[in-house]
Amino acid sequence: MSSIAQSEQLELAVVIPTFNEAANVPVLIARLDAALAGHVWEAIFVDDDSPDGTADTARAIARTDHRVRVIQRIGRRGLSSACIEGMLATAAPLVAVIDGDLQHDETLLPNMASALAADPALDLAIGSRFVAGGGTGDWDRDRVAKSAFATRLSRQVLKADLSDPMSGFFMIRSAVVRALAPNLAAIGFKILLDIMTGSPRPLKFVELPYTFRTRELGESKLDHVVAMEYLIAIYDRMFGKIVPVRFAMFSAIGLIGVGVHMSVLAPVLLVWGEHAFLAGQIVAAVVAMTANFFLNNALTYRDRRLKGARALLDGWVSFCVVCSVGLVANIGVAGFLHDARDGGWAASALMGILVGAVWNYALSSRFTWGRY
Questions:
Q1: R_g of the chain computed on alpha carbons
Q2: Prediction pTM value
Q3: Which pLDDT score is estimated for 223?
Q4: 49: how many CB neighbours lie within 10 A of its CB?
Q5: SS3 of residue 27 by DSSP
Q6: Contact between 170 and 126 (Cβ < 8 Å)
């Protein structure tokens, strides 16, 4: 493989967000080498500290092929944020995003570059599975239906008639990305949706057909959390300026915690009677806080997720301490307002709940998930 000569002008960069894709790295580089023959390009692997050694595999290739670069992220997770970091790390005028699992058709990249070169008004070229000539490969009926539903949902926030807003395969002008970066939410797995909805003006695009391939090596990253993150991204674009998405998730999990608390307390009282109320409250509170901690760790703070027994134990202890103080603040504020207003218990209670929620969110963000 050749390296970029100093006299050659870099034309485009290909950003590849990865997590546990070590086996696919050399195959993808070989395919890019063939597809982009005649172009001056670089590949930027943005790896979320894969335990399978994806970053090291890419580095081994980079030692002899200077077109290959590696960004290894420690303590940060998420496809969208990885793509943004990679796109901002290149000097190339054009930058493409392609998955590291070989399911995107890399032979479409030269056509994307040609489309952008032919029309200076175009902002990006998008690989689409749903325009004439495209396809979803071996998708079953259920997956096609879910994708169609997600596409309809995305139209609630899109500013364009885009047939495949879920596509993770596109090429965009680097200057456009740099201008948009401060407006991007970097949530979840759908970076194209983030870009299209984050732009203050409608972006001009062209869709080019391709057929989605079957994964050959490694494991699929699709799971229920990915679907949840997509919904979170939609919420963020619709309501995020009113109630920040992370606080909304934290509060929603707090409501779940109330249900957990009551479901633990009720049987305790049923079995041991009212005299066990205090003990039941303590047990229920600990169980509810524990449930809230693990749900927040998996969802609200997924990009800062605590791992390992020591980190989880430290995080759980700090979360319980923060929430205990938050409970005191809740009761104190509610009591003060109730006494000051001489009644109005509902409004006082709600204000106490709000103060407690904000306290818990602010301090747990700083001391539980902000230390690692």
A1: 25
A2: 0.67
A3: 46
A4: 13
A5: helix
A6: yes
